[in-house]
């Protein structure tokens, strides 16, 4: 019933249930966007200098050349609006155009953050009532990516609900229209800007996202730097793989690799799962303090190639047996990425019959993290470490 009503809502505002829309396609991000975002490490203390340093580190570490090109300033860059409604950055960001130019001079792209509400989640200025004005300003600054975070719009939604008790969908119409308003405003600038919805996975943004011009949409509430939270987010992605396609990405939130709360095996699981889901890869660590292990995880070329596979399909879970799960993603060239996750704290010998995961004839197997071919096999007999992962490419 709810789905039917949502479809009617979307039709009413010019968004079809299939996600196709009257407005033009969004900025092409035919592969999941890759880059860095300030929030997971710097949170509300981020400065212009931190962002410039991240840009420098993306280049010197080799991350840019591995594909991490977006440099995204998250919440708390905003200052006040002037009498003409123009939003100025705060004292930590003296000149956004200059920052954008600096980022571009390094062969990188510039991302920014706002909210459809009056206030961002950090309590800074949102874009409500200033959508077209803000979009034009972003374009003038050279912005290539906008994360648009629901935040205080939830209060407006509650007010709409109270004002329209006769219409149970009033608040959703209101929210979808708000996201579409900025999507249209970005398009009207003529500058390709990746449009990233942050709505915590409520109200199935994977269904209305494409129709409001979005390139990607958060499918979950915030990640944090713990194995349990990361794994729970992955479990929450089950069934969503089919909503991913080139230019339209489910976003299970930014990476925590390198932030110190998980061990190497756990971060490898995080990276493997995000690649197999076809998720955007936005590093969230302090790039100036990466260990060799962090770099090896973030810059493993084969793992990145799984994430960036040109087929652009999503991945999904195919098996869950207690703490053990198997995830698969179809890749180009009749290959399949397969991640096997041991969520138990103990190491375990786990025999995996390939017939149970969709390969009755077995497969030619490449172990991605080990970088070695295992030949054609039908059963895998491996010892998985506690919280361990194995990532494979299967081919016929
Ligand atoms: C929300 C988002 C986070 C981050 C913060 C910033 O919690 O989900 O990703 O952008 O707001 O305030």
What would you say this structure looks like, in words?
The chain has helices spanning 2-12, 39-42, 48-60, 63-66, 96-105, 131-141, 153-163, 170-188, 205-208, 227-235, 264-277, 292-298, 301-307, and strands at residues 34-37, 70-72, 78-81, 87-89, 109-114, 145-149, 194-198, 216-218, 249-251, 281-283, 316-321, 324-331, 335-342, 348-353, 363-367, 372-377, 379-384, 389-395. It is α/β, with parallel strands linked by helices and 396 residues long. It folds into two domains: 2-218, TIM Barrel, CATH 3.20.20.70; 316-395, Immunoglobulin-like, CATH 2.60.40.1180. The strands form four sheets. An eight-stranded parallel beta sheet has the order 9-8-7-6-5-2-1-10. It has a six-stranded antiparallel beta sheet with strand order 11-12-13-18-15-16. Strand 15 (363-367) and strand 16 (372-377) form a beta hairpin. Helix 3 (48-60) packs parallel to helix 5 and helix 11 runs parallel beside helix 13 (301-307). It is globular and about 70 Å long. Residues 13-26 have low confidence and may be disordered. Bound molecules: alpha-D-galactopyranose. The site of alpha-D-galactopyranose (GLA) has 9 residues, from loops. Residues 39, 74-75, 120-122, 149, 198, 222 line the site of alpha-D-galactopyranose (GLA).
